[in-house]
Specification:
The complex is a heterodimer of chains A (248) and B (174). With 248 residues, chain A is of the alpha/beta class. Chain A has 8 helices and 10 strands. Chain A has helices spanning 52-59, 82-92, 108-118, 123-136, 152-164, 182-197, 209-212, 240-243; strands at 10-19, 26-36, 41-45, 67-72, 75-76, 93-97, 170-174, 202-206, 217-222, 225-231. Chain A is globular. Chain B is mostly helical and 174 residues long. Chain B folds into 2 domains: 1-85, Winged helix-like DNA-binding domain superfamily/Winged helix DNA-binding domain (Arc Repressor Mutant, subunit A), CATH 1.10.10; 110-174. Chain B has helices spanning 3-9, 17-28, 37-49, 73-84, 93-106, 111-135, 141-173, and strands at 15-16, 53-58, 66-71. In chain B, helix 1 (3-9) crosses helix 4, helix 2 crosses helix 3 (37-49) and helix 6 (111-135) runs antiparallel to helix 7 (141-173). Chain B starts with a helix and ends with a helix. Classes of the chains: A alpha/beta (248), B mainly alpha (174). The interface between A and B is medium-sized, with 25 and 30 residues. Chain B: This is PadR family transcriptional regulator. Chain B: It comes from Jiangella aurantiaca. Chain B: Residues 6-79 form the Transcription regulator PadR N-terminal domain.
């Protein structure tokens, strides 16, 4: 494993994923080359069905590519055996989903500590870590609540705390604001922004412009392929006044 | 009427003044009713003086002689520059819309590429506005104004999505 700054955290080459065959062949990902640098936030946008969720699953080892290579932290993961792949997912990748995917019968803190426990941490260390993370996402006072007693935005913040539990190399988020209202979206945006400032590497697939706009780099995806790429950082400061009707 | 819009409507092929007006009406629907025919002729005369448009008397067996207007090479250049330019922060929906219509009709530029370019610009502004909003304490006066900017930008981005869908389908049908 390499930890140098210039090894991309995530790299794909010639990535393809297809389902079915013959006339019902679906090319969900049709030849994607991607490099994500350490500390970078990349957003992938595109219409429903463009392949962005499939791409995210393949990046995180939830699914295997039909063709091509996936490298995480300088290590090729698309050929790992099931056990090694599961371990890699647990230790190196944090997932955030649109539907939160929390365990209903576990409290917020139990949901967060679960992944630390599965990774072999002692119950005491796991609880300490989970408590710390809940504080970080602003939910210290909700630690003992079941998901059902939390708002959508709070549930997503618990899910983000869980994703961070094992200090992953990369956080992969699939429509993280898809089920949230405007105020809760702003909370999640703030949280992603603070992760970014803390040096986390993030890949977000979304069609929410607001979360896409927090990225350093934005990739547009259509029909399984990247069609446009934009660096959003270092943009337009000073022109906001004109947007509000203030000239000059 | 903006001069560039009139120019762009001529990019596909030369046209009589009234045909030009019909092209604009088709693109603008009821919103085009506000234009009067005189405006277009005034604009055409100005464009001709500026050397962007050239006219020719078309001989006709009946009725009065009519002028056919076409772009000069300077006019073509101007249209190309107009298509490539991003007009924010003064969004003019009709102007942007006509840009897509003219680009597609004349085959001068890919409407989807124009949409992508506009989206990049809007997302940069959204990013700035959002960062400024997030840096404000909740419920500050400035946060409220910034929220207004964010919501407007989102509305524009949603319309761009509609433009993208529409022009993707049309391209598929060609």
């Amino acid at each position: 494993m390499s930890d140098t700054a210039d090894t991309p955290v995530l790299r794909t080459r010639g990535l393809r994923k297809q389902y079915g065959k013959g006339e019902v062949l679906v090319r969900a990902v049709a030849g994607v080359d991607l490099d994500v640098a350490s500390g970078e936030t990349v957003a992938v946008m595109g219409p429903s069905g463009c392949g962005k969720s499939t791409l995210l699953h393949v990046l995180g080892g939830l699914d295997r590519p039909s063709e091509g290579e996936v490298w995480l932290d300088g290590r090729r993961i698309d050929r790992l055996g099931e056990k090694a792949l599961a371990r890699m997912r647990r230790e190196a990748v944090g997932f955030v989903f649109q539907g939160f995917h929390l365990m209903d019968e576990l409290t917020a803190v139990e949901n967060v500590e679960l992944s630390a426990l599965l990774a072999g941490n002692s119950p005491r260390a796991a609880r300490r870590r989970a408590t710390e993370l809940l504080e970080r996402v602003g939910l210290a006072d909700r630690a003992g609540f079941l998901p059902a007693a939390l708002s959508g935005g709070q549930r997503q913040r618990v899910a983000i705390a869980r994703a961070l539990c094992n200090e992953p190399r990369v956080v992969l988020a699939d429509e993280p604001t898809g089920n949230l209202d405007s105020a809760a979206t702003l909370d999640v945006l703030r949280l992603f922004e603070s992760l970014h400032e803390a040096g986390h590497t993030l890949v977000i697939v979304t069609h929410d412009d607001r979360i896409a706009a927090t990225a350093d780099r934005l990739i547009s995806m259509r029909d399984g392929a990247f069609v446009d790429e934009t660096r959003l950082a270092g943009g337009t400061s000073g022109k906001l006044g004109a947007l509000a009707g203030l000239e000059g | 009427m903006q001069q560039e819009v009139v120019l762009a409507m001529l990019a596909k092929e030369p046209a009589y003044g009234y045909a030009l007006r019909a092209r604009l009406s088709a693109a603008l629907g009821p919103l085009g009713d506000a234009m009067n025919a005189g405006q277009i002729y005034v604009t055409l005369t100005r464009l001709e003086k500026a050397g962007l448009v050239a006219s020719e008397e078309a001989t006709s067996t009946e009725g009065p002689a009519r002028k056919v207007y076409g772009l000069t090479s300077a006019g073509q250049e101007r249209v190309g520059a107009w298509l490539a330019e991003v007009s924010w922060p003064r969004p003019d929906l009709a102007e942007f819309h006509l840009k897509l219509v003219a680009a597609a009709a004349a085959g001068l530029a890919d409407p989807l590429a124009i949409v992508d370019q506009q989206r990049r610009e809007l997302l940069r502004r959204l990013r700035d506005a959002q960062r400024a909003a997030m840096a404000e304490p909740d419920r500050s006066d400035a946060a409220l104004l910034l929220e207004g900017i964010v919501l407007r930008l989102q509305a524009d981005l949603r319309w761009l999505e509609a433009c993208e869908r529409n022009w993707t389908e049309r391209r598929g049908n060609l």
